[in-house]
Amino acid sequence: MSAFHLIPYTIKTVVHETKRIPPGIELIEAPSMWEQGYYGKDVVVAVLDTGCHTSHSELKHRIIDGYNFTSDDNYASDIYEDYNGHGTHVCGTVCAEKNNAGIIGVAPYVKILVVKVLAKQGYAESQWITDGIQFAKNWVGPNGERVRIINMSLGGKHPDLDMHKAIKEAVAANILVVCASGNEGDGDERTNEYAYPGAFPEVVQVGSVSLQEEMSRFSNSNCELDLVAPGEDILSTYLNNEYAVLSGTSMATPHVSGACALLIEQFEQEFERTITEPELYAQLIKRTVSLQYRRTLQGNGILKLSTSLSHQIQDEAEKLSI
């Protein structure tokens, strides 16, 4: 059985309180979607991580359900509390509540399914993760809700066949699986670094850039990378009802998961039908902008949610000028 772990990350600061839109969320232009009325309402995102600080004022109303697959609390399945901080930080970037305090997540009306697959030390057995993916795929909410997105900011050096099979089954069930690329990068675009499940071709693999839109040196480069998002100096929720600034591809990944929740809401309101996983991926990639790095470093580019709209406006303007 393979061992998996939290992708190493850096804690820069912890603060008791704050009141702002995190700069990473502004960088991906999430407010442009809010202005159109899209907040991710009724979209369920499964966060497979170290659990969540379930009483955090920014998150407690966003949690729809949860399950613990780890050895923490003697394997008690109904205790999915976060004793590490990583999972709480990821959850906050996805969906910290829209109120007049703290921060706001990318999709503040999303519901989080907390799937604890990493123990408090950041360690996981591959079977915990595989079981977590299958749980998210099969989960049904109190009103018939189903998981639409799985977020995994974790990794291992070697691919696990059972985990890969579970991911392919989740994708076939119309769930977009979003994974961190890993923090073993050496800054050299000519070399490849692979961490799994991020390097599986079926997932959306996310690398990291700074808030100045420069590639993070630690971000893995490889031919399976799909896009990049802010992963340095990311402000989000943390343990003890506090907030923290963390860095790592783990922090970039939930920006993409939250963005996809916004895109689901937009598409399904406009077209009055369920968006498929390939369609959602296409809508996501339409909202990337090249940073002029090799594709092995940046994939299709940095996530910018208003990009597609800008291109549509430009296309219409060009048609009118003909």
Describe this structure in words.
The strands form four sheets. A seven-stranded parallel beta sheet has the order 4-5-3-7-9-10-11, with helices on both faces. It has nine helices and 15 strands. Helix 3 (86-95) packs parallel to helix 6 (249-271) and helix 4 (126-138) packs parallel to helix 5. With 322 residues, the chain is α/β, with parallel strands linked by helices. It is globular. Mean pLDDT is 93; it is low at 310-322. It has helices at residues 23-27, 30-34, 86-95, 126-138, 161-172, 249-271, 277-285, 295-298, 307-321, and strands at residues 3-6, 10-15, 44-49, 63-68, 111-116, 123-125, 147-152, 154-155, 176-180, 204-209, 227-230, 234-237, 243-247, 288-289, 302-303. The protein has a single domain (3-321), classed as Peptidase S8/S53 domain (Rossmann fold, 3-Layer(aba) Sandwich), CATH 3.40.50.
Terminal Cα separation, in Å?
Answer: 62 Å
| Strand order in the sheet with the most strands | 4-5-3-7-9-10-11
The shape is globular
Count of all domains: 1
At CATH level 2, the architecture is 3-Layer(aba) Sandwich
CATH superfamily: Peptidase S8/S53 domain
Number of helices: 9
Percent of residues in β-strands: 15-25%
Low-confidence stretches: 310-322
* The level-1 CATH class: Alpha Beta
- Give the ordered list of helices and strands: EEHHEEHEEHEEHEEEEEHHEHEH
Per DSSP E runs of 2 or more residues, the count of β-strands stands at 15
Mean pLDDT, as a whole number? 93
